Amino acid sequence: MIFYNPQPINKMALSKNKIRYIHALKDKKFRNRHHTFVAEGRKLVSDLSENCKCELIAATSETIIDYGHLNCELIVATEEELRKASSLKTAPTVIGVFFQPQNEFIETEIRNGLHLVLDGIQDPGNMGTIVRLADWFGIEHIFCSPDTADIYNPKTVQASMGALARIKTYYTDINDLFVKYAEMPIYGTFLEGKNIYCAELSSNGFIVMGNEGSGISKAIEKHINEKLFIPNFPPQRETSESLNVASATAIVCSEFRRRQ
C-alpha cells in the first residue's frame, strides 16, 4: 500500500521540539502513547513508506525529493540537525516517523499458515533479525509474549530492514494462544528433541523460539507437541553450548520451507 497525496515541503529548520519528539520515541511508553516509531536511513525509510503510513520525514535537500509523493509532513533538514535527531553513530540523510500498523487478525490465515512464536526474546537486534528472516521465508505472522523485545524499538526497526512493514506482529498471552489452537502442531527446539532433518514437519503450525539465555519457558514447553533438535556436526565433536536464537530461527525456518 502506497500513501499518495503530495504535501508541501517545509523548508524551515528541523525544530528543537521535533528533535525532542524523535528522541522521545526511543522510549516505549512514548511510542505507545503516540502510536508511532522512528526509522533512519534512505533504504529503510523508503521500504517502510511503501507499506506504513508516515507522519513525518526529515531529510537533506538532496534526499527530500524522493519523498515528495507522501502524505505527511516533509522537512528539509541540515546534516547537523539530522545528527542531533539521530540515534545512529553516523547520521543518516533521512529520518522518518511512521504510525504503528494496526494488524488485522484473520482466523483462517492463522489456522492454515506457519507462524513464529517468540517466548521472551530480549535482544532488539535478535528480534529485528528474526522479523527479517520471517519475511524472507514467507512467514507472515509473529506472536510475541509480553516480555519479548518491542518490535518498534529503534534497534529492532533498524535490524528488520523494513520487513516489519510486511510482517504482522501480535503481543499476546502465549498460553491462551496455544489453548485456543491446541489442535495445531506446536514446534520448539530442545536438546532432547528429534533431529530436525529427520522429523516430519507440517506446512502449518507454530514454531516457538525461546529466550537467549534460558530458552523456552516451562509454562510454554507444556504446550509443545513436537520437540526438534538442531544437530551439530560432527555429532561427537565438542562445540558451542547453543546457537544464537536468530541463527537457530534461520535454520528451522529454512528446513520447514525446504520440505514444501
Structural write-up:
With 260 residues, the chain is of the alpha/beta class. The chain has ten helices and eleven strands. A six-stranded parallel β-sheet has the order 8-7-6-10-9-11. It has a five-stranded mixed β-sheet with strand order 1-4-3-5-2, sandwiched between helices. Helix 6 runs parallel beside helix 10.
Widest sheet: strand ordering: 8-7-6-10-9-11
Question: Which series of helices and strands comes N to C?
Answer: EHHEHEEHEHEHEHEHEEHEH
Largest sheet: 6 strands, parallel
- The Rg value, from CA coordinates, equals 20 Å
Question: Helix/strand-derived class?
Answer: alpha/beta
Structure described in brief:
Helix content is 32%, strand content 22%. It is α/β, with parallel strands linked by helices.
